[in-house]
Amino acid sequence: MKSKALKPEEHFITEEPYYQPIGDEIRVFESAYKQQLPVLLKGPTGCGKTRFMEHMAWRLKRPLITVSCHDDLTASDLVGRFLITSGETTWIDGPLASAVRHGAICYLDEIVEARKDTTVVIHPLADDRRILPMEKVGELLEATPEFCLAISYNPGYQSVMKDLKQSTRQRFVALEFDYPGANLEAEIVMKEAAIDAATATQLVKFAHMTRDLKGSGLDEGASTRLLVHAAKLMHDDISPVVACQTAIAQAITDDHDMLVAMNELSSSLF
Amino acid sequence: MTRPTLGKQQIIAFMDECLEVEFSFVKNEIPAESVSCLPRQQQDFILNLVKRVADTNIELAYQFACGAVYALESMDQRMVEEWAMTAADYYDRKGLFPAMSVIRDLDNFINTAHERAHGSVLEDEIGVLLPFVRGLSGRKLKLEAAEDIYTDTETIFLPPVMALFSDEKQNFLLYKAMVAHHWAQIQFGTFRANLTQLAEDQLVKFCSLETIRLDACIQRDLPGLHRQMRSLQSHFDDPLNSDRYEELAGTLSATEATVQTTIDLLDRVPYEQCPGTFIYQGSIKPQAVAATMAKRVFREKALFRVALSEMGEELTAANEDSGHVERKPAKFKIRDRTDQDSIGNATIQLEFEGSLVAPPQHVKELISSIIVDFGDIPPEYLVAAGPGEYDMTVSDRTMSPNDVWKGTYHEEGAQLYNEWNYKRQHYHKNWCVLREMEVEPVYDSFVDDTLAKYSRLLKSLRNTFEYMRGEDKLLKKQPHGDDIDIDALVETYADVKSGMEMSNRVFTKMHKEERNVAVIFMVDMSGSTKGWINKAERESLVLLAEVLEILQDRYAIYGFSGMTRKRCELFKIKAFDDPYDAEIKARISNIQPQDYTRMGVFIRHVIRHFSEVEASTKLLITLSDGKPDDYDTYRGEYGVEDTRQALFEARRDGIHSFCITIDEEARDYLPHMYGAANYTVIDNVTALPVKVSDIYRRLTT
Ligand SMILES: Nc1ncnc2c1ncn2[C@@H]1O[C@H](COP(=O)(O)OP(=O)(O)OP(=O)(O)O)[C@@H](O)[C@H]1O
Ligand SMILES: [Mg+2]
Hints:
The structure holds two protein chains of two kinds. Chain A is α/β, with parallel strands linked by helices. Chain A folds into two domains: 2-176, P-loop containing nucleotide triphosphate hydrolases (Rossmann fold), CATH 3.40.50.300; 182-269. Chain A has helices spanning 25-34, 49-60, 75-79, 95-102, 116-119, 123-126, 166-169, 182-193, 197-212, 224-235, 240-252, 256-269, and strands at residues 39-42, 64-68, 80-85, 88-93, 105-109, 131-134, 139-142, 148-153, 173-176. The N and C termini of chain A lie far apart (55 Å). The mean pLDDT of chain A is 89. Chain B is α/β, with parallel strands linked by helices. Chain B folds into five domains: 8-117, no CATH class; 120-284, no CATH class; 287-396, no CATH class; 472-512, no CATH class; 515-699, Rossmann fold (3-Layer(aba) Sandwich), CATH 3.40.50.410. Chain B is 50% helix and 15% strand. Chain B contains 26 helices and 19 strands. Chain B has an eight-stranded mixed β-sheet with strand order 9-10-16-15-14-17-18-19, sandwiched between helices. Chain B has a three-stranded mixed β-sheet with strand order 2-4-3, with helices on one face. Chain B has a three-stranded antiparallel β-sheet with strand order 6-7-8, covered by helices on one side. In chain B, helix 5 (58-74) packs parallel to helix 7, helix 16 (361-374) packs antiparallel against helix 25 (666-674) and helix 23 runs parallel beside helix 24. Chain B starts with 7 loop residues before the first helix and ends with a helix. Residues 321-325, 338-344 and 392-411 of chain B have low confidence and may be disordered. At the A-B interface, strand 3, helix 8, helix 9 and helix 12 of A face helix 9, helix 12, helix 20 and strand 19 of B. Adenosine-5'-triphosphate binds next to helix 2, helix 8 and helix 10 of chain A.
């Protein structure tokens, strides 16, 4: 069996990922990177955080290692563990250690989902020490200037069980993401799904309608991601009303009245 | 086996009990007489309804009992039940008198039964129509039933039943068209002209002509809706069958046409050449519009300018170091809208001392409401309010602490709390006198009835919460356990190989996840909750208690109300340590509306309660129907700011706060008090019991 160690060199992004800047986030990120400050991306789901990271990795010409956090993620999942190959033990770096070693960008997605004790291992990496203690192998990995730590977090999420600790969040430069303005968002939808401007505009209008309903029956409005999904269906000749219903409305809620209302809204638009 | 028919005496006994004859003195002989002649099944049917209506109102139930037999002769049971429930519903929403008239006017009910059967009932459609109209941009509108179809610029009035078409779907679409048309009046500036000056016949012409203009606006923005409206109209005479249609439509449909275009046409188009009536156009009531607008314009201007001055203060505070800063009125500007938004939304960009500022959500909504009225933000709005210009609180004259304290200060059993005065930016020490009171238990069938009413919902709630509790967690690396943790074993083996100590933590163990949650529910018992809201609150508590028992989370329930700072009363319904037993149920049943809501003091008190429990998650959930509001100075801004301050204090102590409210206007102030993610507004009171446990689930997973 070949070892499954992660190869950072395979994580270079060679083609420019399309990213439409909303504000000065690119400049701020570049500056934080230069100053070796870790970055926290805040924002609702599907507003382009992951895409932004891909774009920045490409821009900075560093490999991007993404870890989606979940409640079973242990510290060794990040740092690494010993494995046995033909009677010998070999140490295998976890994604975080690997990123530190190779000066990659490590992106911990949805950090609040990770167990509290796991979150702590990033603390020494995220302050000016920039080290990763690896107790198992008795090594202190020191990050090179190229290494960068970024985490993401969705503050709109209401669960009180999942709040980012102050001691964690106060280590990061925080970039706030939100859905782009109407014109920009229409442009993103057009580019991503190859549909015409008029349709994209109507879709964005629909998104705004659902976002206006946030708090009066909806927990969340339609994200940019869902718009892109609907646009892709429409590009493939699914009727707009059906596309909105399946790709957007059903994805947001199960409430019957709200689904009907959203159907009425989309059938008004198209 | 058929059960024997009830005799007259038995029926009287039954009715005496549910109509509380000792207090109400109604004469049950008369209805009992007629009911006694029916077969048993019908007797049961009627008596059951009598009891259900009696839960709402005794007098109403008595009237129903008197008319029930006659009703059964003319309608089937389903309709009779609807008749009774319609009356009970009227009682809840409009009061006894209208409810009685539903019962008395049985013939009318029967006559309109056909309409209700095929028609579309506003009540049933509002769950869809309301989110529909709120999804359309602009001001957050309300919908209400009324005889006439019109809007006062804040509420759209619609007929309670729509039966123009024989098909329900079409009737619904007509509702939708009416909603959209009146929304368009507001959104596309029909009321930016002063219509009070128009003579009666001018107004009629205006109505039709303006409809053409608005239709064109709708066609541009919502083409699908426009098609639906045309197709509805096509079943009737086409109002556009006028000789001058081409010319009129051309002028009115132009992109640059405004309400002035319509008004200019009034004198040039004689009555006969005007288009006819569109089925969705309703009427225009210039007086109602003017009255509502005048009030709103004043209120919004004040709110906006005060908001600006607050934003200005915050921005200056952030820009300059502390120390004395010379106060000058904040200067705001609207940035030129070069990049016109394709949505045509209110994308006003506010500028403060040269840089763009992002207004908070409630100010954004204010802005879009103002723009709907004026098409822009009028320049005089941009002057931030000066100190004291709008007195949002009542004067501070009564607030000299010493003399007001006489008499109450040392009263036994009372606890004293500070209150935040935002104008002075300091605390009034020992300002509020709080007493914990008990709710007397009332042993009735309320809890059982609620459980029965929601039995289906409860079943699914139980399942979900059971699942939450039973969320088994596979603990890894345990010293003992049911299974071997392969990962850990390999790791240990590797550790040993590389010369390290061998760990004994190589097992996995199934474990129910420890929930360590303590939650306090604070229920608004202010006078304004009387009726539906109070009932919905109590029902919510019953359902909640059921699920919390499953989760075994620790919980306490308090009701709050009071009058002035000297009499703040917290009603204990259940303390953390009380078991949920018959007595607690009986107390829930007896939660009664009292006086006012002075929120801050209760939050501070609850913080004390929380400090006595160990829990990793502390949660304070408030159920309320509106803004903090008390008899004295605890109004508007003052109450909101004190509550906000108290919530800060709670957060400092590690308590998460969440607010569930039924207040339509809550969106203005809740984000400010609780933060954007920590509140929910429920539009529909009846949905409250269903929503509350759902929210709780979301908050704690
Ligand atoms: N600024 C943007 N430029 C280009 N594409 C964008 C932009 N914003 C959103 N998108 C589109 O939205 C989709 C979803 O974005 P992305 O996956 O980055 O969301 P996210 O913020 O990471 O969401 P989550 O929090 O759920 O992981 C992208 O695949 C892309 O199509
Ligand atoms: Mg992502």
